[in-house]
Structures are given as C-alpha cells and as structure tokens.
Amino acid sequence: MKVLHVYPKSDSLIERHVTLLAEGMRQSAEVKVADNAANFKKLFREMEPDIVHCHGCWQFFIARAASYAIKHEARVVLTPHGQLEPWVIKRQSMQENLSKTLLWQRRTVERAYAVILLGKLEMSNFRKLGWNQRVEEIHNAVITNAITPAEMCTQTFTVYQKVMDSNTLEQLDEDSLHALAIMIKVGIMGDRRWIKNLDIDESHIDWRRLLIYAEHEHISNYVDYGISILGLSTPSLDVSRIAAYFPDHYQQPKPLKEVVGDYEGNETDYLVRIIRQINKQPLLLHLIELTRELYRDNVNDELLIEKLEDKKLLNDAARLMQVLSEQTLLDEGYMPLDPKDDRQTEHIRRILTNHLKI
Questions:
Q1: Residue 348: predicted pLDDT
Q2: Entry pTM
Q3: Which letter does DSSP use for residue 10 in this model?
Q4: How does DSSP assign 159-210, residue by residue?
Q5: Hey, which bits of 240-324 come out as E strands?
Q6: What is the pLDDT of residues 293-339, one digit of tens each?
Q7: Which of 28, 43, 190, 350 lies at 20 to 30 Å from 197 by C-alpha?
C-alpha cells in the first residue's frame, strides 16, 4: 500500500500528527509527505499512491490535492483536525467569503472515502453537517495520552485497508475480470464444458479483490460454485468479515424472487417481470439470474418477443442481451433476440460499474 500525506506546513500540530503516522507506518506501507502543492504533485507522479490522506480543511491547495488524487484514481482520506467545528466555521466567516469556501470544502469532504475525526465532540459536530457518513474516530496521540502513537497508527492503517477493500471492481485488472466472467458462467451452468474455449490463468487473478467484489454484489454462491467446478485454488479468506465502505444509499442486492415475486409456472411472464426490473435497476445478481432463466428448456422465444413488444421492452431486452454476453457470457443461441449495443447499453454498463462507487 502506498500512502501520500498532504498537509499545511503552517500548522505545527498537524505536522507532528503526520510525522507520527508516517514514521509509525513505514514497516507496513510506503509513505511520503507533502506540505505544498508543487511537492504534492511531484511525489504523486513519482509514487502513484493508492491513498492520499488530506489533513486540514481551510487551505485551497488541500482541496486541489484531493481533486487531483481522485482524477488520477487514488482514494482520499480526510482528517479535518477540528477545522470544521462550528466555532471555527464562525470565526472563518468573519475573515472571508464563507459560502464560496464551504462549497469546495464540502465537495472535498463528500468525495472522501473516509473522514477521520479526532474525538467524540468533533464526531458529534461533524455528523450534524451531514456531508459524509463514512466516519471513523481515532484519537490524536499528539494531544492526548488516551492513545499511544502505535495504536493511532494501527487504527489509521485499518481505515486505509478498509478504503482499499471498498469498490474493488474499480481495482480489478482485465485478467481478473475475464476470470470472474468464466466463474460466473460455470457457476450458472454447473459444468465447465460450457467454457471449453476459454482459459483462466490462476497466477494472474487478484483473488482478494475478486472475492470481496462477489460478496458485495451478493453473487458469492455462483462464483464459489464456479471456482469449485473449475478446481481453482483460492486463498483462505472470510470475505464476509472484511470491512468496507459503501455509497450512502447502497443496499445489498436481493434475489429476484424477493423483488418481482416467485416463479408461478408462466416462464414468459416471469422473464418479462425480470427484464422490467433489471431495466429499472441493473444489478449483476439479477443479470446472473436472468441468464439462468434463459437457459431453461421451456423458454418460448416467439411468445417472449411478442410480450416484450407489447410491454414496450423489446429494445431494453436487446440491450440486456448485449450486457449478458459480456457479464455472464450468455451464448448467442440462447438469446431470444439479437443484442443491441448503443448509448443506452453503455448506460447500463456504467450503472453496473458504479454500483459500489463512493
């Protein structure tokens, strides 16, 4: 893990705090520190950090550093160091254009993967702002004996790991994504012969991130079954116990039968209900379940197309066929209609990609 701290050099207390963190984590992470914009960009380009830890709130270059980090695919952790306390905001309002300052401040806070507060009072006041719900309380060893520097570093590193274990889809490489699609296909079909022309290189799979992603999308049963059939060796990892951050309105996907109702003997009606639901909210779990239904022997393609046309879902279904061919490797012979790849199809891809995005 690579961490770049950025802080205002004018604040000695923050500087001491950053120094403790940097020195205490050198055995577990590559750590660099920057106290101005030019040095920050230079170090960022050199080390390509996983995490940029921003300290303080009222210096514009801190907000610029956060934006730069996000633009270049690093994740931001923010420690305000008490600078968003109500009395501090009130004092600042007497010195500058507060509304403009708070606009970029709030944007920085909202985009942070996690906000670390240094005490219960700061935590309470920060929650009232409502700018970010992903908060952690870690006392500052510089100003209190309630925590040792080692404990502060350990707790902060735990936050970093939690950040890196969030939205792992964003971090999966092409080899791992390819392997995931194969695992899903085999998990659906229960037979490796369905992917006889596709290969997996186990040595190139990012297992931790792949398995965490499967857990967060609630598809672990399909992925685990596929892994078992393929005879792949996975690390011993209880992903259900790995902490992560989620978007504010995230809810773990539910099986389709809990959303659209149970299958009641009418396959065509059930498929129409599924397609309508996925059209409203595309989720990987539901794409997998739709794929499973399309492989059933009792699917009447002509009747399904007629029903989809009647419900004005024909184009939506065609776009889903394209997405299924990519996500679950649905074979063309089991598609009731030709796939369609257009702007709306790309919109579905973006929704799937951003489901866990902070």
A1: 97
A2: 0.91
A3: T
A4: HHHHHHTSSGGGG--HHHHHHHHHHHHHHHHS-GGGGTT----GGG--HHHH
A5: none
A6: 999 988 899 999 999 999 999 999 999 999 999 999 999 999 999 99
A7: 350
